[in-house]
Amino acid sequence: MVFASRAFHHVEDAPFRLFCNLFVRAIERTGERALTLVLDGGETCHADLSLVRLKRRRLPEATLTSAHGDRLRPHHADKDRLDFRVPASGRLILQWSE
What we know:
The protein is mainly beta. The protein is built from 1 helix and 10 strands. A hairpin with a 4-residue loop joins β6 (about 60-65) and β7 (about 70). The radius of gyration is 13 Å and the shape is globular. The mean pLDDT is about 95.
């Protein structure tokens, strides 16, 4: 039950909610439209990370990069959500535009 209650993360002033199927150890707001995320998973594992549109809002253009600067592309995108498959361990940088 604890995991289910912590899978979705509210991002203040963003038109989406952040979903991750692994524990997010830290979220730090690094700009008006930027976050740094630290995932707490195994070195050889992957996680599902999604941006889920809030009601009556449009999903923005978003980029997700690893701490090494590699751009991660969504494996699924539609008007309601962007789905990424990401390394389960380490730091990610999320940026979006309005």
